[in-house]
Automatic annotation (TrEMBL), chain A:
GO terms for cellular component: plasma membrane. This is ABC transporter. The lineage of its organism: Archaea, Methanobacteriati, Methanobacteriota, Stenosarchaea group, Halobacteria. GO terms for molecular function: ABC-type transporter activity. Pfam families: ABC2_membrane_2. It comes from Natrialba asiatica (strain ATCC 700177 / DSM 12278 / JCM 9576 / FERM P-10747 / NBRC 102637 / 172P1).
TrEMBL record, chain B:
The keyword Transport applies. Pfam families: ABC_tran, DrrA1-3_C. Residues 4-229 form the ABC transporter domain. Keywords: ATP-binding, Nucleotide-binding, Transport. One of its GO terms (molecular function) is ATP hydrolysis activity. Belongs to the ABC transporter superfamily. Transmembrane segments: none annotated. PANTHER family: ABC TRANSPORTER, ATP-BINDING PROTEIN. SUPFAM superfamilies: P-loop containing nucleoside triphosphate hydrolases (SSF52540). The lineage of its organism: Archaea, Methanobacteriati, Methanobacteriota, Stenosarchaea group, Halobacteria. This is ABC transporter.
Amino acid sequence: MSAETGTDASASRTGTTSSTSSVNPDSVRAVARKDFRDSIRSWVFWGLSIFFFMLLVATTGIISYFGDDIAAQGQTTTALVGLVQGITSLVIPLIALILGWKSIAGERESGSLKILLSLPHSRKDVLLGKLIGRSTVLSVSLIAGFVLAAIVVAALLGSFSVADYAGLLAVSILYGVAYTSLAVSLSSVTRSTTIAGAAMFGLFVLFYIIWDTVIVALSMLMNAGYLPQNETTAQATLLFNSLSLNSAYQNVLSLVTSMGETSPQTVALLEGMFGSVPFYLQDWFSFIILLAWIVVPIAIALYRFDRVDL
Amino acid sequence: MPALRVDELTKSYGQTLALDTLSFEVHEGEVFGFLGPNGAGKSTTINVVLDFIRPTAGRVEVLGLDAQAHSREIRSRTGVLPEGYQVYDRLTARQHLEFAIESKGSDDEPEALLERVGLTDAIDRKAGGYSKGMAQRLMLAMALVGEPDLLILDEPSTGLDPNGAREMREIVREENARGATVFFSSHSMEQVEAVCDRVGILQDGQMVAVDSVEGLRDSIGGGTSLRVTVDRIDDDALQAVRSLPTVSNVAAEDRDPPTITAQVDGSKTTVLAELEDHGVEVRDFSTTEASLEDVFQSYTTGAEVTAR
């Protein structure tokens, strides 16, 4: 099972040429399973599941209690998706970063990484296994919370849309995996958990403060006349906004569920401005952005982690 | 084919030279003691062997394979007891071993391995509560998974009491008898002399001596200290003994009973015969060998070795 599939045939004489490791699916699975077992304290898992359960049930309760108008329009699940994502868009990143920040740096600091890498796993296997292991903890607790709450939600809501509910769950999982990918990747570029922790904080600040601030600043500069108030600047601002992981989460949700479809008025406005709705404001593009936030960080980490002294 | 071949290996960290064109070989089927004081570069060498760190220059071959390009295959045939590790607190000994067994694709039984290292009692306890010695036993059991061709044990006696260290040496002998090559690092000669076929002494990133245990003893020149009890002291006899090429530091103590002491590198019977040829009656004699610890000290501190 641990057949050598090394790609670096040119054995380095000097040691300065970088070596790249191979990926073995069995190895990745073994690491992921061990990591899942090790990282999961049962209370974390159940705590998260109960948290998601409560979140859904409480939101549903509020809608069914106050939301007569919503119910009258048969939009209860849509309203649920909208309210829940307002909370999960903040809470899922927090959970993912907390689950992931020590994943590699912690093992490097304590030396348990030596146990993993003394066994026939490549460094890539370890990173991927960690990402899968930690993502599984978050995903399984999301699924558990959602599935358990489904009965209550379906009973309380007048019109329960399984598609919207499942869509919210699926996109939330992807969103969680993206933040886990960021967390594991950042954790692999440092040997200190302190720095890793600071990086997680920085990531949070980036997505929740800096990104929005940049957009506000761009608009202000445009309004004040420091930036040309033309189509290019407007496009750049909108593009920048759509690249944010958090916008991608909302946009993909509106693609998958019936939440927050772009209103015909907005479409008309955008078409008036740009001739047509720009590609990066279309929902399919936000799906690519969401996937890119999963793939790009871990790809960079895979490249770099192979090349460092542990 | 050597089990391990280190060829002109250099590793520097900025200005610090951890390994300086280090070269040595470990033969297939031997127990090799890799000895050196803390900070000599033993762990750095092992880290290159396992591809945890990359050489600045030079190369390492393990089981005939390049340590960097074929690390996965090397590690699938190698059992490792690393140094400075930490066990997974929330996993039991059984889960640790299941992970190693799954990783290596072997069909070992966790119970059997833990029995060999004497950790059966704690099999289903979380490793977070283990003592250093128990963790060390667990890691040794993990190293034994899959009957590896090569065992790399980095300071395996750390945290073990004398009894545990003896059991560990016993396992080294068993594994060697099975056919495994054992590469065994230590900062203490005492740990390696009992089990090692050959010993390499590392000092400041360079190998200062590689030899068998006996060879090292001889090479140091301390040889054997001979103490002979005689009936009388005879100057001619002393002179004759002093003139023997293999003898040094000859001293006579004219007391009761008269005693002659000498450092002997060659045969001690030559000395005894020389005394008797000069009519001196040898009543008793004893020898003391220079301990390997002294040999090690002399290589790593530059101190003179004299047999006690």
